[in-house]
């Protein structure tokens, strides 16, 4: 294993951001290669501790000569967001300087060629970071971007061009659901990882062996040793299943039995009023059309001080909001519906 330190110049004199990269050299140049990163949204830690639990497994495989394809690991992908605090509260989702989501505005290249990356020498530290993350991932057969939701099930975002080829990956990781998407108009990291392959020859795209996904490891508070070990085992099983690591003791993944939901079926359920949320449902619950999902207490103690929110269609609860205070119009939860939503979204679901 080789460790290097990446340095991203800040936007003022004397400021530099650093983050480590770990590389495992493969023994077979024809084997698939992988790039794993976590905490692009810097406060989302389930992926960080999963990588921490995975590293000894990769180190052991390397020592025994079982790493066939090169592996790049970026445990803390966003040193800018990691350093952001406002009045004692960590702010890792948006760049406080630009107000841009750290998982937006990645360059969507026309082909997998780093020479096509834009010149960001004067573009701001966050753009320099995004360029570098794309450089690190470009050309790898497997690119995993580890995130988490507020409170939720474990699920993957997968581009339609990679499904059902990636069903073995979903099974290997043991996730509960897969969301299929087809359009990226905001420049997510996952989009930057898969869109360059959409209009190139099949011999370059190689969708049968390509993996690019955003991994949502449940919720913000799901950071503990048992979950980290389980998630690490899933990552390791994926690498074995796809031939990056050789390990006969790990059986290849079977069929994926979780839910597969088009992004257009997701109901985001905005709150009609501001107030306190009383949920009737939790992630994983199955609901029917008309079931009450939550009550908003907007005028406590007053007549008609509560407003109820009902399911617009049948489906299951994928995620819900972690904080129990909400403003009018803010999303309460993600309901994975059985049919297309009347408010269908083709791009990203939220800011």
TrEMBL record:
Query: What InterPro entries is this protein classified in?
Result: AstE_AspA_cat, N-alpha-Ac-DABA_deacetylase
User: What is the superkingdom listed in this entry's lineage?
Assistant: Bacteria
Q: What keywords appear on the UniProt entry?
A: Hydrolase, Metal-binding, Zinc
Q: Which cofactor does it need?
A: Zn(2+)
- Does Metal-binding show up as a keyword for this record? yes
Succinylglutamate desuccinylase/Aspartoacylase catalytic domain span: 31-193
Can the keyword Hydrolase be found in this entry's annotation?
A: yes
Q: Which SUPFAM superfamilies match?
A: Zn-dependent exopeptidases
- State the name under which the record lists this protein: Peptidase M14
Record lineage: Bacteria, Pseudomonadati, Pseudomonadota, Alphaproteobacteria, Hyphomicrobiales
Q: Which Pfam families match?
A: AstE_AspA_cat
Query: What are the GO MF terms of this UniProt record?
Result: hydrolase activity, acting on ester bonds; metal ion binding
Native species: Mesorhizobium tamadayense
């Amino acid at each position: 294993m080789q460790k290097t330190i990446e340095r991203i110049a800040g936007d003022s004199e004397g400021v530099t951001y650093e983050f480590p990269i770990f590389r495992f050299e493969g023994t077979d140049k024809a084997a698939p290669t992988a790039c794993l990163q976590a905490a692009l949204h810097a406060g989302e830690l389930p992926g960080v501790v999963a990588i921490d639990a995975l590293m000894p497994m990769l180190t052991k495989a390397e020592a025994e000569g079982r790493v066939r394809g090169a592996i790049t690991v970026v445990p803390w992908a966003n040193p800018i967001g990691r350093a952001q605090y406002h009045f004692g509260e960590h702010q890792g989702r948006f760049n406080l300087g630009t107000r841009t989501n750290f998982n937006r505005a990645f360059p969507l290249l026309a082909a997998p060629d780093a020479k096509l990356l834009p010149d960001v020498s004067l573009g701001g530290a966050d753009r320099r970071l995004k360029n570098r993350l794309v450089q690190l991932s470009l050309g790898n057969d497997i690119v995993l971007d580890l995130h988490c939701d507020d409170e939720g099930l474990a699920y993957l975002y997968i581009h339609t061009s990679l499904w059902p080829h990636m069903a073995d990956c979903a099974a290997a990781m043991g996730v509960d659901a897969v969301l299929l998407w087809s359009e990226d108009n905001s420049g997510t990291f996952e989009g930057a990882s898969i869109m360059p392959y959409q209009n190139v020859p099949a011999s370059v795209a190689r969708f049968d062996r390509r993996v690019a996904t955003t991994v949502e490891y449940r919720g913000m508070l799901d950071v503990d040793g048992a979950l980290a070990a389980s998630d690490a085992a899933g990552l390791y099983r994926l690498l074995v299943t796809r031939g990056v690591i050789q390990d006969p003791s790990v059986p290849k993944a079977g069929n994926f039995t979780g839910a597969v939901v088009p992004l257009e079926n997701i109901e985001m359920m905005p709150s009609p009023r501001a107030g306190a949320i009383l949920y009737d449902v939790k992630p994983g619950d199955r609901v029917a059309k008309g079931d009450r999902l939550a009550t908003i207490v907007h005028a406590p103690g007053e007549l008609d001080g509560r407003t109820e929110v009902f399911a617009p269609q049948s489906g299951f609860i994928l995620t819900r909001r972690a904080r129990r205070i909400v403003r009018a119009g803010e999303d309460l939860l993600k309901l994975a519906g059985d049919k297309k939503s009347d408010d269908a979204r083709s791009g990203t679901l939220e800011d």
